[in-house]
Specification:
single chain, alpha/beta, Arc Repressor Mutant, subunit A, five-stranded parallel β-sheet, four-stranded antiparallel β-sheet, 8 helices, 39% helix, 22% strand, binds calcium ion
């Protein structure tokens, strides 16, 4: 398996070096830059599998860099914030990061989050009473096709441009059509965490996913919200 690559974007030298060191020790190929401009240049030169992105950069707002990265590559974005309270605000802004981590964080926690995001293909832990159906490379549900092998989603044959997290959410729903998946279940399966502070992250990504599917012309199946519980895919 080729080395997975991580781009660290952080202007504070000690943090940049610490993150680089712990991720290299965990076996990732790590590159590090200190500005938003350099981050975009690196992403364009050679897109990494995951970006650890500091919110407070000297030349640009991390949220703006995140949006630009999102427009150019499907890689995972783990955003570092100075305070835990900023996380809610950022989720509300629909910046599009796949995960957030507030400073100070422990190196072990950071490594665990990065490994969880890059675990691929992901194994589905047995958290619902419904067993996951046997792996099928392509699932067809009415107008929708979810191709686990190429990680493509098609609506009436046309590919829909989704981020990795959006794809993972849809694949989780499509593996058990009609069944309600709790938000907590999705957190565990897609983000590999059960920290409930992340529940709004599920909602934010689900709403982006829905918007993209509707914009692609999908009318059936649709993602239904089961208020206070979770989501299900209904044909
Ligand atoms: Ca900073």
């Amino acid at each position: 398996m080729p080395e997975q690559s991580v781009l660290v974007v952080e202007d504070t030298q000690e943090i940049r070096e610490l993150v680089t060191t712990v991720l290299e020790r965990a076996g990732f190929a790590v590159r590090a830059v200190g500005t938003g401009a350099d981050a975009l240049a690196e992403v364009r030169r050679d897109p990494p599998d995951l970006i650890v992105l500091d919110l407070g950069l000297p030349d640009a707002d991390g949220t703006e860099i995140c949006r630009q990265i999102r427009a150019e590559t499907p890689c995972y974005v783990l955003m570092l914030t100075a305070r835990a309270e900023e996380v809610d605000l950022l989720i509300g802004l629909a910046v599009g990061a796949d995960g957030y981590m507030a400073k100070p964080f422990s190196p072990r926690e950071l490594t665990a989050r990065v490994q969880a995001m890059l675990r691929f293909p992901r194994t589905m832990p047995a958290v619902t009473t419904d067993p996951v159906a046997a792996p099928e490379p392509v699932r067809r549900l009415a107008e929708l096709e979810v191709d686990e092998e190429s990680r493509e989603v098609r609506v009436d044959g046309a590919v829909v441009d989704l981020t990795r997290t959006e794809f993972d959410l849809l694949a989780a729903l499509a593996s058990r059509p009609g069944r309600v998946l709790q938000r907590e279940t999705l957190l565990r399966e897609v983000w590999q965490t059960d920290w409930e502070g992340n529940l709004r992250l599920v909602e934010a990504h689900m709403s982006n996913l829905r918007r993209k599917l509707v914009a692609a012309g999908l009318s059936s199946p649709e993602i239904r919200t089961v208020r206070g519980v979770g989501y299900r895919l209904v044909a």
